[in-house]
Specification:
DNA-binding; nucleus; transcription regulation; 3 domains; DNA binding; Arc Repressor Mutant, subunit A; repeat; two-stranded antiparallel ribbon; single chain; alpha+beta
Amino acid sequence: MGRKPCCDKEGVNRGTWSVIEDGILSNFIKLHGEGKWRDIPKRAGLNRCGKSCRLRWLNYLRPDIKRGNFSEAEEDLIIRLHNLLGNRWSLIAGRLPGRTDNEIKNFWNTNLSKRAHQDHPQNNKPCHPFTTKSPTTLLTSAHHQPSPVIRAKPFRCTKKIIFTESNGGINSVTRETQNNTTASTSDTARVDDLMGNDCFSSYGVIEDFDFDGLLIPQQVPEINIDDEEANELKWCDEDEANNLTHQNWLVGQLFESAEHNDDVDISFLNLQSDSFMDLDPSCLDGKV
DNA sequence: AATACATTCAACCGCGCGGAG
DNA sequence: ACTCCGCGCGGTTGAATGTAT
């Protein structure tokens, strides 16, 4: 049985939206709100597909859309986030208020991807799949190939505590992520947790992982963490990080899975090259 | 001025996911 | 456990526009 089409394509307007159609859709959504996209064309009196209405509203008609050229700060953030997340445009757009995933995707494809290719011609591949190499191999190869892209993969952990810097003080945010926890977080929220509003400027400590000291002392020996902190992963701002390690390797990311709140993703951040590298899950088998 | 070619970006398309029943 | 449905996502297309010849 085939998939039911989103609408009857016969006799439905397609292509560029007219000013009148924009006005009808805007007014309808302002009055009745978003959602039920399949019903909106009929209710609003538009001869359009519901999907087309949704796209037009989200990408163009929403009042909070920011139009115009991307600033340097926005470009920089897009590049960093693309490094981290790959082609997950909706997630990237979630970090850029007023920008849509479609706009960012177009901007990347027409501008930034070319620049990235010029800067690192060997790294123009799309987001690579999660590797099965050993962590040691990963660390070694990452030094030679400084800009791999991570694909987040979940790891199970038992608990984490994150401290975030805010308004000059330290606010603590505690979350217990044990098996069968039902709390959920969006992808955007988890990126917020990890990156802060200023992208890598936050300071935090993540602790109580059942990693048995696997990661820090053995796989990232350059990091100055003593035995008592063997189960503690740190992430800091760049100045702090440069003071911490001669080779500028630092555990940089921990992702809470949106689907499984008891899982996290781990990657390493190379602060010299701003590149990320993920960790082979097999090394954690039986450890977590 | 006319034409060809390149670039941009709004819009479309198909697929996958999650919730409801 | 299964199907159906609505929604959102990422890849792709093609019309509009810009630039070169």
